[in-house]
Structures are given as C-alpha cells and as structure tokens.
Amino acid sequence: SLFAVPPVIDPGGMLTFASAPGAVGSAVVTVRLRDDGGAVGGGSFEGAPQRFQIVVRDPVNAPPTLSDLADRTVPEQVVLPIPFTLGDDLKGPDELLVTFSSSNPSVVPESALSLLGQGTSRTLQVTLDVENSGVSTVTLQVDDGVYRIRRRFVLTVQSVNDAPVLAVVADQSL
Fold first, then answer.
1. pLDDT at residue 3 in the model
2. SS3 of 40, please?
3. Band of the pLDDT at 39, cuts 50, 70, 90?
C-alpha cells in the first residue's frame, strides 16, 4: 500500500497522510464538499467532486554532512587529535567512506594520518614523529556513494629549537 496513514481532510480543510515505508507511486484522491444545509437552507448541499494526485517519490539523497575543521598550528613531533562529526540522511555513519590526504607529505606524510572512532563522532589523528616543519593542507572527505563533501584545514608545523646534543668525542692529541 502507498499509505501507512490514508489521506484525510480535517474540518479545517487540512489534508494529512503518511506514506508507507519504502513506498513509491501515486494515488488519485477525490473529495466532495458536503453541507447539511442547516434549518435555514432547508436541505443539504453536495459540491462537485474535486480530484488531485498525491505522488510519493524515492527519498531525495542529500550530500553527507561533515563538521568544519579549523586551521591549526602545532610544534613538530606531536600527536594531534582532531575531532569531527559526520552524517547522512539515507546511510548510517559506518556506511560512509571517509578518506584523507595531505598536500605536503614531507611535512604531514599520509602515514601520519589515521582515523579513529565509529558512528557520527570520529577523530582524525595526526602523528607527527619526524622533525619536519612547514605547511600542509589536510583534506578530509566523506562519500555516501552519490555525493561527497570535503573539508580542508591548514596545518602549520613549527620548528622546535631542540636542546643541543653532545656527541662522545674520543681523546684527541694535538
């Protein structure tokens, strides 16, 4: 059946109905205005039938959602968790394809990026374990199979003035 709740017009003239889950199709609805006429009118009145069509279509797929990601500045050799949320109107969050990339692999190598979490709340973890500084644009993408959405943020990795290291030097003779 097309309807879980059939079309009804209330006394105020409001049409309400609910389509059945997964239903697609159309139905022609015929309505008539009836009035008992009251004592003054001396009878009843029935208007001409009015017909209209109700069409129930497939759900419209909207692009997935992805929270905004702010630019960040961090020192080198740090673990940076970046929380974000995602969603979709037709697919569950674990059915979405989440990918990421770095515009400058010498600063943020692909191996430094990992995805943590399940459901709508996730974390992009950036593990910077090398002494490289510079700027990279990190792109996070969510794909529902039809639409994809991307968010980018600039990650600036600042050089750290490391403490000097003294190497063991063998005895020297002059």
1. 92
2. helix
3. low
- CB-based contacts of 96, cutoff 8 Å, min separation 6: 64, 86, 88, 142, 143, 144
Written as six digits, the tokens of 93 are 């969050």
Contact of 56 with 23, CB cutoff 8 Å? yes
Decide: pTM greater than 0.85. no
Query: How many CA atoms, within 13 angstroms, populate the side-chain half-sphere of residue 160?
Result: 15
Give residue 90's Cα distance to chain centre.
10
Kindly report, residue by residue over 81-122, the tens digit of the pLDDT.
999 999 998 899 999 999 999 999 999 999 999 999 999 999
Judged on CB neighbours under 10 Å (0-12, 13-18, 19+), 140 is: buried
Contact 74/128 with Cβ under 8 angstroms?
Answer: yes
Residues 6+ apart with CB under 8 A from 164: none
- At residue 34, the 3 state secondary structure works out as strand
What does the pLDDT read at residue 38?
Answer: 61
Contacts of residue 112, defined as CB under 8 A and 6 or more positions apart, other chains included, come to: 102, 126, 127, 128, 129
Residues in the chain: 174
